[in-house]
User: Which sequence fits this backbone?
């Protein structure tokens, strides 16, 4: 811009001066933004056109093209999980494309994961203690609704508790008898053991 002398000695001060400053970036050229195009499946790019809205057409570009990488939006419907494959212990499900560009999104995807088996069992009664092995057994039976890959039955074994002290082996306890002379008794069968074991085959309580 031109500055003209307003006050001062004209013999010492110049009558006019030129002053300049850099232009602010983008202040002279204003553009209208167009919509983004569809994603190009070859380049994975999309573009839009900027059209000159305000500014000197001699110094501003009349059109500008912007490009950017596509942000793929692929949304899928989830199918149900398959039954567990007992060989691989894996189950699968299929995802079907619900929303997104079929040129850049997979139409179907298959997901696999390890099975988390749900095995629930009904517990049978414990057998009587085996005097030879000092153990007793029971059988667990698979409940309805459990995973089909679970074993139908499972045997359980554990050491006898109480029955094998001093090599004594007993049967189940009977019921308490009627009260006689202020005492009630109950007994269990002694299957193996001596006189000391016989003492532990009888229980009494006051009545």
Assistant:
């Amino acid at each position: 811009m031109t500055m003209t002398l307003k006050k001062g000695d004209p013999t010492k001060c110049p009558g006019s001066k030129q002053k300049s400053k850099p232009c602010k970036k983008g202040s002279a050229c204003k553009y209208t933004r167009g919509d983004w195009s569809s994603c190009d499946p070859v380049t994975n790019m999309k573009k839009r056109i900027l059209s000159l809205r305000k500014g000197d057409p001699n110094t501003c570009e009349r059109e500008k093209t912007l490009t950017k990488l596509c942000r793929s939006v692929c949304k899928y419907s989830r199918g149900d999980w398959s039954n567990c494959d007992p060989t691989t212990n894996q189950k699968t499900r299929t995802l079907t494309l619900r929303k997104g560009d079929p040129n850049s999104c997979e139409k179907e995807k298959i997901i696999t994961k390890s099975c988390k088996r749900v095995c629930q069992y009904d517990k049978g009664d414990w057998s009587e203690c085996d005097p030879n092995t000092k153990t007793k057994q029971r059988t667990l039976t698979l409940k309805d609704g459990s995973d089909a890959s679970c074993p139908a039955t499972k045997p359980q074994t554990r050491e006898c508790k109480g029955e094998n002290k001093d090599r004594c082996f007993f049967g189940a306890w009977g019921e308490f008898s009627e009260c006689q002379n202020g005492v009630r008794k109950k007994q269990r069968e002694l299957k193996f053991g001596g006189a000391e074991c016989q003492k532990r085959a009888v229980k009494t309580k006051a009545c």
Q: What stands out?
A: The first strand starts at residue 2 and ends at 4. The radius of gyration is 46 Å.
